[in-house]
Amino acid sequence: MSFELHPDLRRDGIEIGDFPLCKVLLINDSHYPWFVLVPKRVSISDTIELDADDYAKLWEESRTFSKAIMQAFDGEKLNVAALGNMTPQLHIHHIVRYKSDPAWPGPIWGKHPLKPYVETDISDIKAKLNAANITGLSPQ
């Protein structure tokens, strides 16, 4: 069995790059700079199911990516969460937040319908991430 994205992540995410362990998706909601890291492992739903090396690698990739997106998007607060109640494949949300965003200060889930990006916005986000020279991230 090989790694595949869960249908929910394929539907809502735009593949923008890969770390050695994780696939990086941009969630197609222009309300927020919202990204998801998905470890490229089969049948994993919780971080505790990763072996020790993958567990450490996940949090290092998360830390590296978090620092880069906060700088690239001039964030005020970073939300990082791994819920998986609706989508069982392990995935870690990384959401850059602002006091002016539509859900502030509450969680973003269920507040507003997704507002898809236009193609030029996706290109701009990819350019910001490329300019950030994120260690270990291979852009798509």
Fold and architecture overview:
- The protein is 29% helix and 22% strand.
- The chain is an alpha+beta fold and 140 residues long.
- It has a single domain (7-139), classed as 2-Layer Sandwich (HIT family, subunit A).
- A six-stranded antiparallel sheet has the order 4-5-3-2-1-6.
- A hairpin with a 6-residue loop joins strand 2 and strand 3 (34-39).
Tag the structure with descriptive keywords.
single chain, 140 residues, HIT family, subunit A, six-stranded antiparallel sheet, 3 helices, 29% helix, 22% strand
Please outline the helices and strands.
Elements: H1 7-12, E1 13-18, E2 22-27, E3 34-39, H2 52-72, E4 77-81, E5 92-97, H3 119-131, E6 138-139
Antiparallel strand pairs: 1-2, 1-6, 2-3, 3-5, 4-5
SSE string: HEEEHEEHE
| Proportion in helices | 25-40%
Taking all residues together, what is the mean pLDDT? Answer: 96
Number of strands: 6
User: Numbering strands along the chain, what is their spatial order in the largest sheet?
Assistant: 4-5-3-2-1-6
CATH third-tier fold name: HIT family, subunit A
Radius of gyration: 14 Å
- Helical element count? 3
Q: Which stretches are poorly predicted, pLDDT < 50 over at least 5 residues?
A: none
β-strand percent reads: 15-25%
The CATH architecture can be named as: 2-Layer Sandwich
Structural class: alpha+beta
Instruction: Determine and state the CATH class.
Output: Alpha Beta
Name the CATH homologous superfamily.
Answer: HIT-like
The major beta sheet can be summarized as: 6 strands, antiparallel
- How would the global form be characterised? globular
Give the number of domains: 1
- What gap, in angstroms, lies between the N and C termini? 24 Å
